[in-house]
Amino acid sequence: MWSWINGEVQAVSQARVAVVDHGFTVGDGVFETLKTEAGVPFALTRHLQRLNRSARGLGLPAVDEHVVRTAVDELMARQAYPLGVLRITYTSGPGPLGSQRGDGPPTLACVSLEGRPWPATTQVVVSRWPRNERSPLMGLKTTSYAENAVCLAEARADGFSEAILGNLAGNLCEGTGSNVFVVIDGRVFTPPVAEGCLAGITRDLVVEWFEVEERSMPLSVLDTADEIFITSSTRDVHPVDRVGARTLDAPGPVTAGLVEGFRARSRADVDPA
User: Fold this and answer.
1) How far is it, in rounded angstroms, from Cα 63 to Cα 57?
2) How far apart are CA 213 and CA 58, in angstroms?
3) Of 66, 103, 183, 224, which has the highest C-beta tally within 10 A?
4) What are residue 4's DSSP bridge partners?
5) CA-derived radius of gyration, the chain
6) Which three-class secondary structure string do you get for 65-78?
7) Mean pLDDT for the chain?
8) Which of the 8 DSSP states describes residue 119?
């Protein structure tokens, strides 16, 4: 397992980041997680574009995408897993212990770890906690993930792999690390980003490649939808067979078609523009 931190490649066990780095002390940073197959990252260009959008949203300097690509190449040359997970983290760098940022350069870190395939279907539960669609972090993939960690830990303690959140308006929003889709009468719907969800890379590709309508929906749609699936960079299109106490036949016909369609499209183009 290898890491790249500010230009230096090290084994993960030896990698170091300053204990006063603002990404560590206050969660002042952004990140991306990518799937890799045989050392080839999927949708790297889109992930780097979103990394910079998130950085701008936090007021951080632009990330040098060439440097990140070099880091990724160096890591993949060291160890290319059949299925891997690549994490790119960019923080405001060392700073005071409070909220004010320091004057030093940002920290850029990449790490490559072995991935594990998800099961064919998955189980989700509606979280008791809402997503704040009016948060200043809305739409940004930041390292301030404690809220997601709390919701996911509660879901996993009850035997579910993901927690689905509504927003403050009571509408369907997203998972802690995924986007959510529903199928109703053969049509596919997903919440628009204005509801507070992250514009996931896999989400956006599913919307672009297939017939999907972005629509505001009450959280209760999960009680009646014919099919449900979630998407993420490590899950791809992942059928849901249980929502809380409700079970579904999964994958349903529409979801099954999307699973195969996404697999074919993503393998034909590993870096879709």
Assistant:
1) 13
2) 30
3) 183
4) 9, 110
5) 19
6) HHHHHHHHHHHHHH
7) 96
8) P
Nearest partner of 15 among 45, 24, 241, judged by Cα: 24
**Residue 156 near residue 171, CB atoms below 8 Å:** no
- The tokens describing 159, both together, are 């035997």
- Give the pLDDT mean for 246-265: 98
Residue 1: band (very low, low, confident or very high) from pLDDT cuts 50, 70, 90: confident
**Other C-beta atoms lying within 10 Å of the C-beta of residue 21:** 22
Residue type, 212: V
Of 198, 145, 136, 197, the residue nearest 26 (C-alpha): 145
Question: pLDDT digits over 103-120, tens only?
Answer: 889 999 999 999 999 999
Q: Cα-Cα-Cα-Cα dihedral of 252, 255, 258, 264, to 10°? A: -60
Q: What is the pTM of this model?
A: 0.95
> Do β-strands 187-190 and 236-243 pair in parallel, antiparallel, or remain unpaired?
unpaired
Q: What residues contact residue 118 under an 8 Å CB cut-off, 6+ apart?
A: 161, 234, 235, 238
Q: What are phi and psi of 137, to 5 degrees?
A: -95, 5
Q: What is the DSSP string of 12-69?
A: GGG----TTBHHHHT--EEEEEEEEETTEESSHHHHHHHHHHHHHHHTPPPP-HHHHH
